[in-house]
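Complex 737.
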Amino acid sequence: MKYANIIVDITNENVDKIFHYLVPECLKDKIRLGMRVFVPFGYGNRIIEGYVIGFSDYTDIEESRIKEIASIPEDYSIFSENMIHLAKYIADRYYCTKCLAFQCIMPKIVANKLERYIYINYEKEDILSHIDNLMSQNNDRAKIINYLLKNPDITVARIKKELNIKDSPIKTLEKNNIIKIGFKRQIREAITKEKYIKTSSFKLNNEQQQALDFINSEPKKPVLLFGVTGAGKTEVYMQVIENVINKGKQAIVLVPEISLTPQTVERFVGRFGDMVSVTHSRLSDGQRFDQWQRAKDGDISIMIGARSAIFTPFDNLGIVIIDEEHEISYKSETTPKYDTREVAIELCKQTGATLVLGSATPSVDSYYKARSGDYHLVSIKNRINNRLPNIEIVDMREELKNNNKSIFSKDLYNAIKENLDKNLQTILFLNRRGHSTFVSCRACGYVMECENCNVNYTYHSKRNKLICHYCNSEKDVPNICPSCSSKYIRYFGVGTQKIEEEVAKHFPEARVLRMDIDATSKKNSHEKILEQFREHKADILIGTQMIAKGLDFPKVSLVGVLACDIILNSGDYKSSEYTFSLLTQVAGRAGRAEVEGKVFLQTYMPEHYSIVCARNNDYLSFYKREIEERKQGFYPPFSNIFFIVLSGKDEEKVFESIKYLHSILIYYNQRTNFFITDVAKADIYKLKNEYRYKIYIKAEDETRLKNFVMYCIKILKEKKDMKNIYINISLNPNYMQ
Ligand code: ADP
Ligand code: ZN
Ligand code: ZN
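Predicted structure with adenosine-5'-diphosphate bound:
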């Protein structure tokens, strides 16, 4: 550890990188990862703060230009041991540098926001008589003193505004020592609303109470809390947290980013007041950094947030709650590609905190772990208000037979019409995964499937080919259905905008809102659309999975899922799981309050178990069938899938390198016999001017697989010039792209 890798504390895009500093002899024994240090910076060698995020034995910087760390401040710890442990775990488990792991676990460092405050200088001799003297005058200086006597805690900017005065009277008072100006750190608040309605605990029902008691007994293994939407899980979480707080410990509550609405935060703030903070990607860097510091300083005890809130630096963590644990967003899609659930398990192991994973539709993986004893399983079977919407499956093949080629089945069309007449609201739901789409027969529902892999082919419009995401085999798009010879075999690919047009055509009187990535790209537009819909400024909301989660609109009595098959046929081994959980969630949007809810699931595969089980609200049957499919196909949790992507600007070099890696893998696989695909273009083949090629490897034993891959990559790096070629590895990714 000759050099320390240091991030400096300056808010400037250009210095948002890592600098190497020489570690002086006298500090060699003291310096640690995660430490706050002082370093000289820039031409003037101004001394500024920095954070040690790693060490190196070599540097690219010329010897003569490298600087030394100046000193270590008194309170030098910034990362707790736990956080450092977590960063190391991430670097090791998700194959990234320690440096990236450290950057991942801490928010971007932003200089503290300081505000100028103005005070009466009570230390001055005879200050009171000075004040009396001033007050008898009728000028700005008297006004200032008068105001300060009534409002002792005020910023310079504020007093100037309130009294409509300039700097000069303040300066004069300061010069005469009557007032003092000082700097005070200003917290950049994350929760802006000032008033919350205070709530208190509900008396729990039996199932809730059992769940609470069990979690309060501090089980060592993670607890999977399985309970339908509306079962009262959040109420249980809050009472668990209350118990944790009473023991002087802290809580982290994770919810998916899209569920992190003001309403969600409001529930927790309503119960716990200013003990609560929140962190998510829509906050500014300054806001996020301040919340992180407040947690570290012990100013808050409950952090609510999306994925990255797992890195909240509490010093006595009591509980971590991961709500909607099945959500794919808990797995990061950027390096390091960590799985928040795994990180949480590690964190809880390290700190002794309890971990609760909650869901109405647990991930197949988590439920499998609960069944095999890795997790405890706690169920809440009944809903608080015991009402489920009426769900109907609509067979779209029948519609075609009856010569209805529109995107609305007759039943759904009539239901929308009726809802409009009754002045009730409707949600129309469509989900598409990226650009990919599949080919199916509208007459019989047949879907083109890969013979090798038991998953659907994905249609790639640019090349007009069918491609399997697993073995990378290709096929031409057929003109007639191989099963029933109908000519209505085609790729599926209606977008939300197309639906908006169709709605306008069929229901010209309806007021329509659309919510998808395009409609929500502007800041706060997401909340604005929902607000408008809640206030009943629209009759129909059209949207993607963004509208599936947790929303609670009392006047929505109808939900139409236009094409269940789109997610189902996405060509992913998890597509049934995604379909089941999404349909269950979407259906839960209907009839939340007084009005009876109705849900239509339009599909060309009405017999598919994921759709039937969603209709019957039957997770267990779904799970039993799905786990069997996974076993048959040798997919997780029975195997692990390694996904390797090589990328770079020089396409030929990327291709050559991955071909070479492939030959190494094949050579060494003679002994191991893992399943290795051919080299293929990645689904997103060109990204930011870089070309991407991929390989998958599948095996049962994760450690053996990892060692195998790492060994082969090491050989690749030794044998080939890998300059400007990036190796990207992920384990069991959400999507096989
Ligand atoms: P979940 O998180 O499982 O979807 P919630 O905790 O949001 O369920 O509960 C659903 C609704 O029932 C909420 O409005 C909540 O305030 C209410 N609720 C929860 N528990 C109770 C209880 N024991 N008694 C009365 N109402 C409750
Ligand atoms: Zn295949
Ligand atoms: Zn057919």
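The chain has five domains: 3-105, 114-185, 193-380, 390-434+495-629, 640-731.
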